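Lab notebook, bench 4. Continuing the backlog of folding jobs that were queued last week. Each job is logged with the same field layout so the records can be merged later without manual cleanup. Today's entry covers Glutamate dehydrogenase, a 418-residue chain. Filled in by technician R.K.

JOB TYPE: sequence-to-structure
TARGET: Glutamate dehydrogenase
LENGTH: 418
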Amino acid sequence: MSTYSGPVFDMARSQFETIADHIGIPQHERPRILLPKRAITVACPIHRDDGSIAVFEGYRVQHHLTFGPTKGGTRYAANVDLGEVAALAIWMSWKCALAGLPYGGAKGGIAVDPHSLSRRELEALSRRYMQEMIPFVGPQTDVPAPDMGTNEQVMAWFMDTYSMYQGQAVPEVVTGKPVAVGGTVGRREATGRGVAHLVGRAMERIGLDPRGATAIVQGYGNVGSVSALTLAEMGVRILGVSDHTACYHDPRGLDLAAIERHVAAHGSLAGFSTELAFDPKELLVQPCDVLVPAAVERVIDADVARRLRCRILAEGANGPTTPEADRVLAERDEIFVLPDILCNSGGVIVSYFEWVQDIQRLFWEEDEVKRRANQILDRAFHQVQERVQRERIPQRMAAMAIGVEKVLDGKRRRGLFP
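JOB STATUS: finished
OUTPUT FIELD FOLLOWS
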């Protein structure tokens, strides 16, 4: 266990042990289910624009290959480390299993602030990272995707680098690409749309009318912005939004159209308003019907959980709620929790569709993509609700139990190679 450390990995391990106790996994089987199959650390040197050489550390963790290739995003952030990447890969395994996708979980990352790089430097770093990963990734081995700090353009550079090595176009090696080079319509919006779709299902469950309901979204990036816009289309009034540069709150409701225009012009929320500026530490605990943490891990601790004033907690981010906070939420029946491995699974579901379409060289219309994604989300949602009702357990425990059991069953059935 010494290879992986840090608060995010400790959190993933703690969650797993709780589930393993609940479903009765013997102690001797637990390391095989939890520990990643493979972890890669690489050095990525590039020429900076000033002529100097900089070296960045890159990571890729593949959790298991029991059902097919591994699948997971690639994160560019200054604080990325191996433990965080491993935790994200583990969560992705449970997420794929819950959705019924033929994948194991993976995650990658580079310890870099992408905003500190010029476009040329960003391309050089992305291509170098993929070049270093070529022995370990591939359409039937590990299929990267975007995550925090990366986007469609980075995926296009990944695909081109791998394809040049193979001597032919291999669009199925990554997902989240531009449509022009084999991406699928609806992929960029998929995670946020999925969050909003499941919020709608939760509203039906608790009898809350979206027309007139209110929401707060922490993290106005790709997932958060699409979640907010889709919820607004459903009739929900957005009271607060934030990103790493600014936070705004208005109990009368924010003008999302104006915010979208500002972000499109300036790249972030900073500078949108002085009158609506708000303390980001207090945003999560403001009154609302729907709270969407869509930023980073571990933002809802036990203290925040006790102070939440929402009816639905929709986890757009990975791992936003700590195990200590989960114990608090388990006693707060008035809050309906949509756990991350269910709530934000729309992205990997549509990534799966993109991979399938690339392999077949046959592409679907956007309505077909949305219909199929919602069908899978609904199936997973109902499976979780049935488990909650049958065993009288919290939403996260039910979702993770389903995912972990599927991985455990797959490993048991395949057996252990001698």
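OBSERVATION: The CA atoms of residues 318 and 340 lie 6 Å apart.
SIGNED: R.K.
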